[in-house]
Amino acid sequence: MSTYLKKTSTYTVSLIVLLPLTLFCLTFLLPFSAYLSNPLATPAAACGSAGASRVAVRAAPATDAGVGGQQRRPGPELSVLVGVHTMPGKHSRRHLIRMAYALQQTAALRAAARVDVRFALCARPMPPEHRAFVALEARAYGDVLLLDCAESAEQGKTYTYFASLPAMLGGSGGGRPYDYVMKVDDDTFLRLDALVETLRSAPREDMYGGVGLPFHDRKSPPFMLGMGYLLSWDLVEWIATSDMVRRNAMGVEDLTTGKWLNMGNKAKNRVNIFPRMYDYKSAKAEDFLENTIGVHQLKADLRWAHTLEHFNLTRLEPSSTLHGF
Fold first, then answer.
1. d(Cα 99, Cα 313) in Å, to the nearest integer?
2. Looking at the predicted structure, is the pLDDT value of residue 57 above 60?
3. Model's pTM, two decimal places?
């Protein structure tokens, strides 16, 4: 009888099953554990590029390095870190948001400001399948911030996000890596050029910007709505070092952020962008403002489609060969 017809040995079956699994772990999960310890490392360093020894992580001077350890070139005077708060399982939503913001990084925008968009996720809990897929994103795009927190907006995620950034970015004592840090929901679409234009005339110190409720004080609202708000870098550093803020980390995140600033007698400069950031109403053109900065409540893909089409992000060149477009 031919050897090809003999019964396959248990050893052979085990080898066939375990070899791919072992390769998967070596390729994705081990590098991902390194990424957890240094989420702002470059993709190559975090993943252990072929032939390279283990890279020692140091905080580069804030004036020379940005997110991901990339060298900052002399350029625009304004810089903003946009942290999109999302959850590990929302892989397709993150990819949609990446495309929406990448298409806005025009030469004109880059000349006016440096706007870095990153996705803020909590490392706990993270099922194995999400851990593997997030590791792929971290390697491919280098735009994932993994925070040491539980995935819940009311259990201190926003506090961990702001409080972790100075250590991650190496900003303390060496200059500011960003002028502003923004927290934004993953169901909010931002028009980056409109955001930058507004910030160019805003204070760079002790600044808290966002959308205040219409019935609050328009000039100095007690808090900004959680759809999206900004803090100047000095306030981010203050959050990272304040015992009072740490003790009050839990709670409804937008109300809690305003509470910190009010209790600490901070954020004397409040920039209320109401009504230029607002909730989605419908696909009708009249329901989008011409000077829009952001549209919120885009929880369904169809709402994203309506919004992106209205602001011409889906426009194709006349030479496109896509049928029916």
1. 9
2. no
3. 0.78
